[in-house]
Amino acid sequence: MSDYATIQDVQNLKRQLTASEQTRASALIPIICDLIRYEAKKVGKDFDKMIYMSELCPVVDEFTGNGTTMSFTLSRKPANVVSVRTSEGFIDAYTVSGDRVIFDTAPEGEILILSEYRALAEVAKAVVCDVVMRELNTPATQLPATSFSEGAGSVSQSFSLPNASGAIKLWNSDKKALGLLRQQIGTISLWNERKGAR
Question: Given its phi and psi angles, is residue 179 left (phi above 0), alpha (psi -120 to 50 degrees) or beta?
Answer without folding.
Answer: left
